[in-house]
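Worked example

This section walks through a single chain of length 108. The input is the sequence exactly as stored; nothing has been trimmed or padded.
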Amino acid sequence: MSSVFIYTLYNIAYKQGGFNLEIVIKEEIVSLRSDSNSLFIFFMAVLTGSTAVLFKVLTNEITAGFAIVSAVGLAVAFFVLLLILKTRREIDGMINKLKELAKERECR
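Given that input, the structure is written out below as tokens.
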């Protein structure tokens, strides 16, 4: 979920006397961590398979045509890595928002 969605959800709930923004952010962090773990497992699987195919091509165990499959796999792994990094940035931003909320609560 994007932070815009979280703030919109919070505003709706706040107007209705609903739940706390901290709870929403914590639940979103848990969800994003789960997504990040799943993406990492997929990244490692694709990277392992692609390098194994590339190794077999280099040792002439399979035809060179499979090098294309390995290149596509490496490209997919790169994009999955970018998704993992994006997810980590979102988690870090939410953690910073939680820290800001905690400081605001202390000031009250």
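What to look for: The two ends are 29 Å apart (CA to CA).
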